[in-house]
Amino acid sequence: REGAAADSFYLVRHGAVALETFVPGRGAFTFLTVKSGEILGADWLIPPYRSSFDARAIELTRAIVFDGKCLRGKCEADPRVGYEMMKRFIPPLVKRLQSARMQALGMYDAANA
Fold first, then answer.
1. What is the rounded CA–CA span in Å between residue 104 and residue 107?
2. H or E element at residue 49
3. Does domain 8-111 have CATH number 3.30.2270.10?
4. Which ranges in the chain belong to alpha helices (H)?
5. In this predicted model, which residue has the larger pLDDT, 21 or 59?
6. Separation of CA 53 from chain center
7. What global pTM score does this model have?
8. Strand-strand pairing, 16-23 and 54-57
9. How far apart are CA 61 and CA 63, in angstroms?
């Protein structure tokens, strides 16, 4: 849930999860879908460690949960571990940002057509 403590993250093994945010006057808005093999939840890395969005399984989904709070402590205790985690988390986040930007541009084009 958006605003909840972000103390874990997930690896989606099978299925699909919609990432949603609330838009006043419109309700829940799906801005991205996370699928098999992708990571869900990076807010455990970024203070104040709160979820930035809602996540909802849109089909039968299996995922592995990781204790982000524990891992965050290990990253802070050993900067090498933290650096390795960042190297693994940043590329998928950049890819998602690019995807979200392209989706938003598509919506903008459709609204102005």
1. 5
2. none
3. no
4. 68-77, 79-111
5. 59
6. 8
7. 0.77
8. antiparallel
9. 7
Give pLDDT, residue 13.
97
Buried b (16+ CB within 10 A) or exposed e, 1-32: eeeeebbbbbbbeeebbbbbeeeeeeeeeebb
Residue 9: its H or E element: strand 8-14
* Number of continuous H segments (helices) and E segments (strands) in the chain: 2, 6
Query: What type of residue is 43?
Result: D
Closest residue by Cα to residue 65 from 20, 10, 109: 10
**Tokens coding 15:** 């299925």
Residue pair 64/10 in contact (Cβ under 8 Å)? The answer is: yes
- Per-residue model confidence (pLDDT) at position 14: 97
Q: Domain limits of the chain? A: 8-111
List beta partners, residue 18.
33, 56
Of the pLDDT bands very low, low, confident and very high (cuts 50, 70, 90), residue 37 is very high
Q: What is the pLDDT of residues 66-96, one digit of tens each?
A: 999 999 999 999 999 999 988 988 898 888 8
Q: Do residues 30 and 18 touch, judged by C-beta distance below 8 A?
A: yes
